[in-house]
Structures are given as structure tokens and as C-alpha cells.
Design goal:
MetI-like fold
Length: 250
């Protein structure tokens, strides 16, 4: 039985990580195609990728959109969660459902809806439009994590702060948020990860200043190359770094 458990675990890990291992290994391929047989090790593809101005611009665009949109989604999600957790409002159950609903909707549907609304409002495709789209998809996640973390022990501290004369914004900034530092950090890093890898919304809502997933898609249109593997490896490295930071600081 123990052997069966270890076998199942090994197969599961292989299923998840084998494609990533192949991606990374063939990013060092000393050849024009990332396919077997492996012809040797070279760093030329990484040098080519890091020296590509379009790729580096797309990388910076992705970081900008991911960090800013995640921060906005975190603030809005935290405020909404605090309001619905602390104040009894008519229809609060419905409000929670509406806030979480985008998590059940396809990104393609959200992107098409936003594209239609932006066209009606005269908002052109841009990084800012993409950032708004990422706020829409990450806000439910931030709300759900913040709402689930709020408990009665925080109510007592918030009530004591109000009794001592603290304004409501001081209660939020100096009491509520620090007590929820770990869940808020988790929500932020998860949002950054989802935004960093997101393609559909970024593809439909950007035009000239594209994000890294859109730039990778443009590279793939010209065929497979170890350069695309190198880019994918760098993207994977950033995602792993975010997860490690989440484990260390949360």
C-alpha cells in the first residue's frame, strides 16, 4: 500500500512538472529547434531574449499591470470585505454573491464584455484597459480571502480603537489591515501571479504596448524556437519566485 502511494505521488508530480522540465532543458538547446535529440548546452537563446527590446518592454508592461492591478484589487476587495463583514446590510448575501461571481465566468466572456463597454465609452485598448480587466478578475479573489479571514477577535480590537477616539480610516489602516497582513499578502501575491500569466484579456484590451504573454504568442506564430522556451523559463522563474516569497513572508 505504501509503494502504491509513493507511485501515485511520483506519477502526479511527473504529470505536473515534466512539461516544465522539458521546457527549461530545451531552452538551453544548441540548435534551432527545441526538439530531441539534445545537441548541447548554450546560453545564446537567453542572451537573445534578454537583448530583445520588445520582449523586455513587454516584461516591464506585465510587471506594471500585475503590481498596480493587484494593489487596486486588494484595496477594493479588503474594503468591500470589511464593510460586508462588519455591517449588516439589506441584501448583503446577494452583494457577496455578485462580488464573487466573476470567478465563475470565463476570462473570454469578461474580456469581450469589457471590450464592448470600453468601445461604448470611447476607451481605447491600452495597458490601462488591461489593468482594469485584471482588477475585475482579481477583485473577487481578494474579497474572498479577506472576508474569510475576518473574525470576532478583530472586532474587539476595532471596537477598542473606536472607543479610544480613532477615526474609521485609522481603524482600517492601523488595526484591521495589520491584523490581516498575512491573508492580504497572500491575496496580493496570488493576484500578481494570475495577472502575470493572463493572456485573453491582455490580448483583447491591448494594442501596441503588449504584455509578455501576448508577446510570447506573437513569437509562437513564427514557429517553435529555443528562444520561446527561454522566455517561458523566465516566466516560470518569476512565478516560482512569487510563490517562494509568499511562503517566506506570509
Amino acid at each position: 500500500m505504501r509503494l502504491l502511494s509513493w507511485t501515485y505521488l511520483a506519477v502526479a508530480y511527473a504529470f505536473v512538472f515534466l512539461p516544465v522540465v522539458v521546457l527549461v532543458v530545451f531552452s538551453f538547446q544548441d540548435g534551432r529547434l527545441p526538439v530531441p535529440p539534445f545537441k548541447g548546452v548554450t546560453l545564446d537563446w537567453y542572451a537573445k531574449v534578454l537583448g530583445d527590446e520588445d520582449l523586455m518592454a513587454a516584461l516591464l508592461n506585465s510587471l506594471l499591470v500585475a503590481v498596480v492591478s493587484s494593489l487596486v484589487a486588494l484595496i477594493l476587495g479588503f474594503l468591500a470585505a470589511h464593510a460586508l463583514a462588519r455591517v449588516r446590510l439589506p441584501g448583503s448575501v446577494l452583494m457577496r454573491g455578485v462580488l464573487i461571481a466573476p470567478m465563475t465566468v470565463s476570462y473570454l466572456i469578461i474580456a469581450l464584455g469589457l471590450l464592448t463597454v470600453f468601445n461604448q465609452l470611447g476607451i481605447r485598448p491600452s495597458l490601462w484597459a488591461t489593468g482594469i480587466g485584471h482588477v475585475v478578475i482579481n477583485l473577487p479573489l481578494c474579497f474572498a480571502i479577506s472576508y474569510a479571514a475576518m473574525g470576532d477577535h478583530q472586532k474587539a480590537a476595532e471596537r477598542a480603537a473606536r472607543d479610544l477616539g480613532a477615526a474609521e480610516w485609522q481603524v482600517l489602516a492601523l488595526i484591521s489591515a495589520p491584523m490581516l497582513a498575512a491573508p492580504l499578502a497572500a491575496a496580493f501575491f496570488l493576484s500578481v501571479t494570475f495577472s502575470w500569466d493572463e493572456f485573453i484579456i491582455a490580448f483583447l484590451l491591448t494594442r501596441f504596448d503588449v504584455t509578455l504573454p501576448v508577446e510570447i504568442w506573437s513569437m509562437l506564430k513564427s514557429g517553435l524556437s529555443p528562444a520561446t522556451n527561454a522566455v517561458g523559463s523566465l516566466v516560470f522563474l518569476v512565478s516560482v519566485t512569487l510563490v517562494i516569497l509568499l511562503e517566506i513572508f506570509v
